[in-house]
Fold this sequence. Notes:
1 helix
Amino acid sequence: xxxxxxxxxxxxxxxxxxxxxxxxxxxxxxxxxxxxxxxxxxxxxxxxxxxxxxxxxxxxxxxxxxxxxxxxxxxxxxxxxxxxxxxxxxxxxxxxxxxxxxxxxxxxxxxxxxxxxxxxxxxxxxxxxxxxxxxxxxxxxxxxxxxxxxxxxxxxxxxxxxxxxxxxxxxxxxxxxxxxxxxxxxxxxxxxxxxxxxxxxxxxxxxxxxxxxxxxxxxxxxxxxxxxxxxxxxxx
Length: 236
């Protein structure tokens, strides 16, 4: 069973976000950015817990999470639950209760966090253990900011590498449907941060509008995979 949070009002009315571990809600820099003055910049986050439920957890906002007349700091997400972040009304749905045919935005459905981890675990059991990667620092901190797609506003800061980006990466995951499980890797080589496209993603990753296999990254570079765009910058 896949659960969704559907936004009922405001600029994002009708948007349906698949519930997953780590999904964040706020006014800026979150997976779901809500233009609501009563919503804090980093307002709430979804956690998967040992009880088998996903919980919505307040991140220290001034208004908390509200359901009916209660102000809460956390609550389990079950089908039919209604709650508000700030002034924005939201409802939890079971995928079976949604009209998949008439809402193309549901093409964003992704495997749950548990399914992704299970897949990684099963693959690890079937394959012999690999030697650990050599971890090295980047000469400058690499900043990746997602500027288009489901995760718009998400920022990653890379102080060491190699780091893997992909659909089931535990390192830097992408939640867009159809994105390869392994898209590309960013690794330090001397003073450079080098992008190396995985074999499964050749012909699918563009750097500044051109398909690449490997390239050193520069400030302002744009990496496109599917509908996701990532802007590269450096700090330090």
